[in-house]
Write a structure and sequence with these properties.
The protein has 110 residues and is α+β, with helices and mostly antiparallel strands. The protein has 2 domains: 32 residues; 71 residues, OB fold (Dihydrolipoamide Acetyltransferase, E2P). The chain has 2 helices and 5 strands, in the order αβββαββ. It is extended, with a radius of gyration of 19 Å.
């Protein structure tokens, strides 16, 4: 019985360690894709959907100027960014998520 419990604990620990080890690899795979600088104005922050709706500038070689919702790499961004903020971020070819979002000009108070 003890051997079975010990084996089960070892398997669970192995699975957890594998999952943790894979997280940095998933981000590193983005590095293999073409990287672009993203600039735009936040139109809406949707914490429930975990998205920012942004009117982005043209991204030469990848995407024209448009307004659309983007996922973000860190949920904390959704609490820091406000509608009206000008932001920059990193985007990767084939991925509509914003990485390393930074506010470059905060929204003006009315």
């Amino acid at each position: 019985m003890r051997t079975t419990r010990r084996t089960l604990v070892m398997i669970v620990a192995g699975v957890l360690l594998s999952a943790l080890a894979a997280a940095p690899i998933a981000h590193a795979q983005q590095k293999g894709k073409k990287e672009y600088t993203f600039k735009g104005k936040v139109e809406k922050v949707d914490e429930k959907a975990k998205t920012l709706t942004v009117a982005n500038e043209n991204i030469p070689g990848w995407m024209g100027a448009m307004t659309m919702a983007y996922g973000v790499d860190q949920d904390a961004v959704l609490k820091q960014v406000k509608a009206g903020d000008q932001i920059t971020a990193t985007v990767y070819e084939g991925d509509l998520k914003l990485y390393n979002v930074k506010v470059v000009s905060p929204a003006k108070k009315k």
